[in-house]
Design goal:
Layout (H helix, E strand, L loop, with lengths): L2 H21 L11 H9 L1 H6 L8 H6 L10 E5 L1 H4 L3 H4 L5 E5 L5 H6 L1 H4 L7 E5 L2 H5 L7 H17 L3 E5 L12 H6 L2 H17 L3 E3 L1 H5 L19 H19 L2
């Protein structure tokens, strides 16, 4: 091999090695054992690294929202996709209720945005519905005690800012339809029941409102009633029709405190 060719090959190898060093190690996302959840988590990498709490989602809407009028009973509904898809204007027509749900979020993400999406809006009441995505492991494995710690932090922040907190139970899930299978398998009923038991006790001990959707939505098998959610997780119109008066009653109780 000529000297020129040797130099050329050496240059190529050196360039390749440098490029490999610059690109850094390849990141492997641990499998959850659920193909759908693995794909979901992989699709969220940019969010998890660049805007973990997704503060950008409501930044403009928050800036455009005026301060509450005198005697306005503003309420923020704060949660994940179950809140996100809830059409509050249809369920509570004419009410000053603000939706700040973001699909897929866990309590860890919600805690990051609690100030911007709840406290800064100066509500009298916040209705919190969270935890199902923690149990599923959307942002990674998390034990029940850490879910509970996140919910406790939200309660303490709300109390410090004189916002009455209503804590909703985690909803039951079902596996009655083909598209409900993954959602159901990711959310063991034993964990849902355990977090709900803790949450009910915590609310009782801290003079907070516990909004028990679970008991009103569960069937005789301990699962979410088949006709209330097509995918086993997200309430449909019939599901929200049951939840609406329950939320309204809880809000009225909170406003009287």
């Amino acid at each position: 091999m000529s000297t020129a060719r040797l130099l050329f090959v050496s240059l190529i190898l050196t360039t390749a090695a440098f490029a490999q060093q610059q690109s850094g190690p390849q990141v492997t996302i641990p499998s959850t054992g659920f193909a759908g959840l693995d794909q979901y988590r992989a699709s969220r990498i940019a969010i998890y690294t660049d805007d973990y709490g997704q503060l950008a989602r409501y930044r403009d809407a928050n800036a455009a929202l005026k301060a509450p009028a005198a005697n306005e009973n503003r309420v923020v509904f704060f949660g994940d996709s179950i809140t996100d898809i809830w059409k509050l204007d249809e369920s509570f027509p004419g009410k000053p209720y603000v939706n700040r749900g973001i699909g897929g979020q866990t309590t860890s993400q919600m805690l990051v945005r609690f100030r911007q999406d709840v406290l800064d809006l100066q509500p009298k009441v916040v209705v919190i519905l969270a935890g199902t995505n923690d149990i599923a492991g959307n942002t990674g494995p998390i034990p029940n005690q850490d879910i509970e710690a996140n919910l406790s932090d939200m309660a303490e922040l709300a109390r410090a800012h004189k916002v009455q907190a209503v804590f909703s139970s985690i909803l039951p899930v079902h596996n009655y339809t083909p598209k409900s299978q993954d959602f159901f398998a990711q959310r063991p009923m034993s964990r849902i029941l355990a977090v709900n038991k803790w949450l009910k006790s915590y609310c009782s001990e801290n003079d907070l409102i516990y909004l028990d959707y679970f008991d009103s939505l569960v069937d005789d098998k301990g699962l979410l009633k088949r006709d209330l959610a097509d995918d086993g997780l997200h309430p449909n119109k019939a599901g929200f029709a049951i939840m609406t008066p329950m939320a309204e009653k809880a809000i009225e109780q909170a406003l009287q405190k």
